[in-house]
Amino acid sequence: MRRASGIRPDLHRNGPAQLGGLRSDIGPSSVHDQLLHGRLGQGTKTARVGVRSARRVTSDLGIVAFTTSSHQYPPREIRIAAGWSGYDERSSMRLCTFEHAGRCEAGILRGNKILPISQVNAKRGADFPVEMLELINSNSGKALPTLSKGLEAEIPVTDVRMRIPYSNPGKVWCIGLNYRSHAEDLSEVQPEEPGSFMKPSSSFFEPGGTIELPPEDLSQEVDAEGELALVFGERCRDVPLEDVRDVLFGYTTTLDMTALDILARNTRYLQRAKSFDTFFSFGPVIVTVDEIDDIDSLEVLTVHNSRVFSRDFVANMKHRPLQLAAFHSRVMTFEPGDILSTGCPKGARIRPGDTVEARIEGVGQLHASVTRRGTTG
């Protein structure tokens, strides 16, 4: 069994674990992965996540229990719920936030229909948060595949407005020049270490919405970059590379814009060149981490005016996604819902009237149209 060291007790959070609102009899714990892939309950979260084990036991009364162990606590039993059908570790989820009939909530995307989380709660007597960030933060999301199993998704996607999964992540990190093609396009040399920067929440726009280019007196050359992003599911720091998947909630698509002419004047202007309003979006779908078996095999596309403008495989990144997460976890503590966007093969120069899309098969598509903001003053 692989074990991680260096746990910081001060990052533990006491309290009974919960599973979609169903209380268990466990206290503070680091229960992991083979049970609910590291995110059971609101008990302890650790700075570095190792591998634990879980053994499932079903009684004659239908009470499901797991005997768990970790490097930190002795084996103990978790009682989940009478009639609970057991979990399917092969199950996976495609989650979204949608607006329908005046209500905005998280749902499970199944084909071209959506199953609202509120319906799962009503049908299963559960208490999952219906807001996406709360769902991620609650550590209960991994119970969804089982408790939603057998429930029919009834709301057509055509009847809803897809929204940004959540508008208030604690932080959004992005990586520059992670593909050789992007560096060559800008006549730059790829940095030996990840070239990272942050995006403010004021730069967000809704999926399917509009990118507003800055007034021409501020910038006349903007590119749009389709990217793959990691969504964190655990509070973590100093995560070893082999444990990164354990602290992730899932993956999503992003669109990241850059005012290239501002950046070209001085590389110290990078943050300003990246921070205009409507210069970032993510979603509308988040796929859970177990949805993707081999992240390196994913192909990232930027589609400009309905034509593929650039494409490349994650395997060709200079710094792979899991490496990026491990690297940046040595710099800062990540919180549930934090986003790390991993870079674009090559950005498309966009003009008013254009359309642009990030597309990753197996993850999702993120569309936007382009206008220009008028000059003020």
How would you describe this protein?
By secondary structure, this protein is an alpha+beta fold. The chain folds into 3 domains: 9-82, no CATH class; 94-163, no CATH class; 172-372, Fumarylacetoacetase-like, C-terminal domain (Fumarylacetoacetate hydrolase, domain 2, Alpha-Beta Complex). The chain is built from 9 helices and 22 strands. Strands 6, 7, 8, 9, 10, 11, 12, 14, 15, 16, 19 and 20 form a 12-stranded mixed β-sheet that branches. Strands 13-22-21-17-18 form a 5-stranded mixed β-sheet, with no helix packed on it. A hairpin with a 4-residue loop joins strand 3 (53-58) and strand 4. The chain is globular and about 60 Å long. The N and C termini lie far apart (65 Å). The relative contact order is 0.16.
Summarize the structure.
This protein is an alpha+beta fold.
Secondary-structure topology with pairs:
Blueprint: E1 18-19, E2 22-23, H1 33-36, E3 53-58, E4 63-69, E5 76-82, E6 94-100, E7 103-110, E8 113-116, H2 117-124, H3 132-138, H4 144-147, E9 155-156, E10 161-163, E11 172-176, H5 180-185, E12 195-198, E13 210-213, E14 222-232, H6 244-247, E15 248-259, H7 260-265, H8 270-274, E16 280-288, E17 299-304, E18 307-313, H9 321-329, E19 339-341, E20 348-350, E21 355-360, E22 364-372
Radius of gyration: 21 Å
CATH topology of the largest domain: Fumarylacetoacetate hydrolase, domain 2
Number of helices: 9
Q: CATH top level of the largest domain? A: Alpha Beta
Number of strands: 22
**Structural class by secondary-structure content:** alpha+beta
User: Looking at the structure, what is the overall shape?
Assistant: globular
Straight-line distance between termini: 65 Å
Beta strand %: 25-35%
